[in-house]
């Protein structure tokens, strides 16, 4: 099958990028032919069909550009004609200032209404009716809806209204390996957003007696900058090294290429995510593919839609988080190996080829 994968320019797209990239890889392993397109209201987009393009907080995946400006729309629709099906890796552009306020703002809908192929829309947000409400305007042109997390299934059901078949699936992942030489250090890979709860740990980070390597960026970094200066030795924000506390063992690396983050996970025994809204994020899953112990907030594991078993990770509470994390950092080696071996067996359910086969069998 020849599949067109269409996505849009979206802020904080990290997990969506990973889902899209792994979906494409899994489908290719199954023998399908895929092409990725970024559809925008712009005349041009600096993307490359053969290489990733770094845009600071995220990369543009290797892709072609589909403009939905009036003067390009006809050609964009013709580009999609040869494909057997269309997968919208995110349902639509968000109705933000970037995508609204001009006469052609709803031309993106013609990629749904003026194409004849079966269409699959992937949901990465349980609040689509707030963040992406205009997607409801093309409901009659969606053939199958897929929830990228179990946590989103009720929102997808609300969208489908009993008229569109839908389901959820495991997050497609690349299996990296579980036999790497590791050290007792903590990778903290989440974006610095309020929901990631950095504020609970940063002031007390000095209590953690093994190195913590923090990555990512966002508004919370700036909010906590004075605390960061007290507890981190080096700060590489913006690609410029600043040394704050020479007595600290902790480092803030900021935004780095994905390969560097992956290397950090391979070498560390622990990966930390303090978000507690129940969603099973990419930063929860990915450590499992590198033989690293995922350390999660307890409420994530207690959520009815959590996709990771409690015995495949370690849990802590935001109350006294520094003390709990220090305790976890001393977990006996035999227990760490037991957890990672168990998690490695479980995460095979997320193998991209296996996940994509299930999605396509339901959708097409």
Description:
The longest helix is centred in the first third of the chain and has 16 residues, at 14-29. α1 crosses α13 (352-363). α10 (298-302) links the parallel β16 and β17. The protein is built from 13 helices and 17 strands. Helix content is 30%, strand content 20%. The protein is globular. By secondary structure, it is of the alpha/beta class. The strands form 3 sheets. The chain has an 8-stranded mixed sheet with strand order 13-12-14-11-10-15-16-17, sandwiched between helices. A 7-stranded parallel sheet has the order 5-2-1-6-7-8-9, sandwiched between helices. A two-stranded antiparallel sheet has the order 3-4.
Low-pLDDT parts are: none
End-to-end gap: 10 Å
Q: How would a textbook summarize the main sheet?
A: 8 strands, mixed
Number of strand elements? 17
- DSSP helix count? 13
Give me the strand/helix succession: EHEEEEHEHEHEHEEEHHEEEHEHEHEHHH
Helix content: 25-40%
Percentage beta strand: 15-25%
What integer value in Å does the Rg equal? Answer: 21 Å
Q: Mean pLDDT, nearest integer?
A: 94
The secondary structure category is alpha/beta
What's the overall geometry? Answer: globular
* Strand ordering within the main sheet: 13-12-14-11-10-15-16-17
Question: Which terms would index this structure?
Answer:
alpha/beta; eight-stranded mixed sheet; seven-stranded parallel sheet; globular
Secondary-structure topology with pairs:
Blueprint: E1 2-7, H1 14-29, E2 33-40, E3 53-54, E4 59-60, E5 64-67, H2 70-80, E6 85-88, H3 110-113, E7 118-123, H4 128-131, E8 144-147, H5 153-160, E9 166-168, E10 183-188, E11 212-215, H6 219-223, H7 225-231, E12 234-235, E13 242-243, E14 251-254, H8 258-267, E15 268-273, H9 282-285, E16 293-297, H10 298-302, E17 314-316, H11 321-328, H12 333-347, H13 352-363
Parallel strand pairs: 1-2, 1-6, 2-5, 6-7, 7-8, 8-9, 10-11, 10-15, 11-14, 12-14, 15-16, 16-17
Antiparallel strand pairs: 3-4, 12-13
Helix pairs in contact: 1-13
């Amino acid at each position: 099958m020849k599949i067109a994968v269409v996505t849009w320019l979206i802020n904080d797209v990290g997990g969506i990028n990973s889902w899209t990239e792994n979906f494409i890889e899994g489908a290719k392993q199954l023998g399908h032919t895929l092409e990725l397109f970024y559809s925008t209201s712009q005349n041009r987009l600096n993307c490359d069909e053969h290489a990733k393009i770094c845009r600071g907080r995220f990369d543009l995946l290797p892709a072609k550009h589909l403009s939905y400006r009036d003067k390009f729309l006809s050609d964009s629709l013709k580009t999609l004609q040869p494909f057997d099906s269309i997968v919208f890796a995110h349902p639509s552009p968000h109705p933000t200032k970037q995508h609204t306020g001009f006469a052609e703002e709803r031309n993106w809908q013609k990629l749904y209404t003026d194409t004849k192929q079966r269409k699959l829309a992937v949901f990465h947000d349980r609040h689509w009716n707030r963040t992406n409400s205009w997607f409801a305007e093309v409901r009659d042109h969606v053939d199958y809806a897929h929830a990228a997390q179990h946590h989103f299934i009720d929102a997808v059901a609300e969208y489908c209204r009993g008229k569109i078949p839908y389901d959820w699936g495991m997050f497609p992942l690349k299996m990296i390996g579980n036999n790497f030489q590791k050290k007792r250090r903590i990778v903290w890979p989440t974006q610095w957003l309020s929901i990631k709860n950095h504020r609970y740990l940063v002031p007390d980070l000095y209590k953690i007696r093994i190195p913590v390597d923090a990555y990512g960026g966002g508004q919370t970094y700036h909010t906590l900058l004075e605390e960061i200066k007290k507890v981190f030795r080096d700060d590489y924000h913006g690609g410029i090294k600043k040394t704050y506390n020479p007595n600290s063992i902790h480092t803030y690396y900021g935004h780095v290429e994905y390969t560097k983050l992956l290397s950090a996970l391979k070498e560390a025994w622990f990966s930390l995510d303090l978000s507690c809204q129940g969603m099973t994020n990419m930063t929860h899953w990915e450590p499992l593919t590198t033989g690293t112990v995922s350390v999660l907030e307890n409420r994530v594991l207690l959520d009815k839609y959590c996709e990771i078993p409690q015995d495949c990770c370690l849990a802590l509470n935001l109350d006294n988080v520094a003390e709990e994390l220090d305790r976890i950092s001393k977990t006996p080696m035999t227990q760490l190996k037991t957890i990672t071996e168990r998690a490695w067996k479980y995460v095979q359910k997320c193998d991209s080829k296996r996940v994509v086969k299930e999605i396509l069998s339901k959708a097409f």
